[in-house]
Amino acid sequence: MKFSFLQRPEIKTRLTSTHYDLLIIGGGITGAGIALDAASRGLKTALLEKSDFAFGTSSRSTKLIHGGLRYLKQLEFGLVKEVGSERAILHKLAPHLVIAEKMLLPLRDKRGFGSILTSLGLKLYDWLAGVEEADQRKMLTRNQTINAEPLLDPKDVKGGGLYAEYRTDDARLTIEIIKKAVEQGCDILNYVQVKDFQIQNKKIAGAVAHDFFTNDDFEVKAKVVVNATGPWVDDLRELDGSKKGKTLRLTKGVHIVVERSKFPVQQSIYFDIPDGRMIFAIPRNDITYIGTTDTNYNDDKDEVHATTEDVVYLINGVNESFPDVNLQMEDIQSSWAGLRPLIHEEGKSPSELSRKDEIFESQSGLLSIAGGKLTGYRKMAERIVDLVIEKHFKALTLQECNTKNLKLVGADFDEPIEVRGYLEEITVRLKHHNLEKYARYLVYNYGKNTTVILDHLEQTFPAFNSESLAKAEAWYCIHFEMALTLVDFFIRRTGMLFFDINRTKMLVEPISLTFKGHYKWDELHYEKEREQLQNAIRSATQFKAINNR
Ligand code: FAD
Question: Which of 337, 381, 461, 520 could form a disulfide bond with 468, CB atoms 3.0-4.6 angstroms apart?
Fold first, then answer.
């Protein structure tokens, strides 16, 4: 289904002329999930995002669909059970995007819990998450652990555990949910900011929004408004005069990216570092990414960067645990930094704060949802839509929540195993053009819509190479995924700026010209876009020593 700038005028006409049941503010995973749930149950729904979809935390996570093993330490059994069980559901909804991955947990001298506690913990984790028998945790001997990861220091490895997780691409997941919500009839725009609320008889009746694409303001009427703005939740509560009681505490998490050959882990690994925290190292095609930090954050929410201190912390964590790895500052190819929108609890350190979601209702009726995890988006959406229906639409005949059966866009595989067959088919097709090295990236990014991209490539371009392939991808993202800026393409649609910085740098010129042609940018706009992309590249690759720990 087309979802592009060409549709924007119609969508905007509907936004200004419809009286919606529900208006959602924020196009991260939380807002996207609510939009899909509400629209698929039959509520007349709209969603507005001030920047690009997944611009906030939902493009800057560890990109795991996980049960949150460490929440066992905090005795959050309910959270582990909920998000743990969600993993298998999300795998079925988008098997090309939520991919099973074993995680190695090494047991080391004087670190973490001993082998008995870890074994019990992993068993409990499997049990809470309902992991199928074949996938349940396996405890490893010292030798098996060293074989599984030869980079570990044999002197301090005592054994290990291997357990089931899933990896994803958070921004792509968000965008596929947005596209599915559009298919279900939801009216959605990015680059539209809610800047005020409409109030009637002291109750919220809609919002005043500013469209950055056309630079004008308009009003959207809705019976219920949900504030799903992640780290910005309190800003909207302030606008509504309801920032009272519980508030958000933002903590920053940074990931760094190195060439795989600099840190060639065999598989994903979750390991203890000297300050008692644990970090992940996750291999992905030609790179390994490492994260995360967890520090209080009170700065600009729109400009979150990794600092030298964050990077050094992660480098030291790796070098200390893997004696033959000697990462240096200059090895860092890219990075990202995100904010956890957590609920403040007096006297707790960032890592101790609960990751549970909560819903706040203000006197005006504004519903705000905060906390939570990428992994739990579907259940969070179900809870808040149930609440909205219970409070306001009991008289309507609406469907029950059915999102666990709604396959995402590009995911029409009958069984997850079919992804492999499709990947083989795409590899063969790309081999004709000597582009087979992109097969995995394309299928895991776009699922079955890889076919749409390759059809366009073959029909439009006389030469087949990395550049024409990227132009075909840009065409797809512009026409089917509402990519409006260069950064939308390089970060949220393709992840290229994080995971393939060299290809990104090679493609700056041709992709900028592709966007310029599609959008008919004048020189001034073109230069502004180029500058924003260069800023994004600088932000991911250059680090300043600003201490905000
Ligand atoms: P966001 O993604 O931030 O979305 C909010 C959106 O609201 C933004 O796009 C913003 O632009 C928009 N907005 C703000 N104000 C307005 C306005 N006035 N008008 C319109 N739009 C507005 N979870 C996992 O399950 N697995 C992980 O591996 C994982 N790793 C993480 C690692 C880190 C470092 C961090 C920080 C978090 C991690 N999480 C993980 C948690 C997860 O990423 C977040 O819970 C989730 O992304 C939050 O999504 P959200 O939609 O609530 O917020």
Answer: 461
In tens, the pLDDT along 380-424 reads 999 999 999 999 999 999 999 999 999 999 999 988 899 999 999
Token duo for residue 184: 């279900």
Contacts of 30 (CB under 8 A, 6+ apart): 58, 228, 230, 369, 372, 377, 380, 381
Distance 259 CA to ligand 1 centre (A): 27
Q: For residue 351, what pLDDT is reported? A: 67
Mean pLDDT of the chain: 93
| Burial of 407 per CB tally in 10 Å (0-12, 13-18, 19+) | middle
The amino acid sitting at 199 is: I
Residue 295 preceded by cis peptide, ω within 30: no
Strands 358-361 and 332-343: unpaired
**Atom 34 in ligand 1: residue holding the nearest Cα:** 253
Average pLDDT of the segment spanning 364-371: 94
Q: What is the number of the ligand 1 atom nearest to the C-alpha of 255? A: 34
First to last CA, the chain: 45
pLDDT (tens digit per residue) in 443-489: 999 999 999 999 999 999 999 999 999 999 999 999 999 999 999 99
- If you measure from the C-alpha of residue 160 to the centroid of ligand 1, how many angstroms do you get, rounded to a whole number? 32
Closest approach atom of ligand 1 to CA 294: 34
Separation of CA 97 and ligand 1 centre (Å): 18
* Interval 20-61: pLDDT, tens: 999 999 999 999 999 999 999 999 999 999 999 999 999 999
- Return the residue whose CA atom lies nearest to atom 52 of ligand 1: 230
pLDDT of residue 217: 98
CA-nearest residue, atom 38 of ligand 1: 61
Structure confidence at residue 548 as a pLDDT band (50, 70, 90): very low
Q: Supply the Cα-derived Rg of the chain in whole angstroms.
A: 23
Nearest to 546 by CA among 378, 385, 309: 309
What residues line ligand 1, using a CB cutoff of 6 Å? 25-31, 48-51, 55-58, 60-64, 66, 193-194, 228-232, 236, 253, 292, 338-341, 372-375
Of the pLDDT bands very low, low, confident and very high (cuts 50, 70, 90), residue 353 is low
Contact 499, 257 (CB under 8 A): yes
Among residues 182, 237, 171, which one has the least CA distance to residue 495? 171
The SS3 of residue 385 is helix
Q: From the CA of 158, how far away is ligand 1's center (Å)? A: 37
Atom from ligand 1 closest to the CA of residue 293 = 34
**Residue 346: partners with Cβ closer than 8 Å, 6 or more residues away:** none
pTM: 0.96
Q: Mind spelling out the 3-state secondary structure of 50-97? A: CCCCCCCHHHCCCCEECCCCHHHHCCCHHHHHHHHHHHHHHHHHCCCC
The residue whose CA is least distant from atom 51 of ligand 1 is 28
What per-residue confidence (pLDDT) applies to 549? 45
The pair of structure tokens assigned to 255 is 């990931």
Count other C-beta atoms under 10 Å from residue 78's C-beta.
11
Q: For ligand 1, atom 8, which residue shows the shortest CA distance?
A: 56
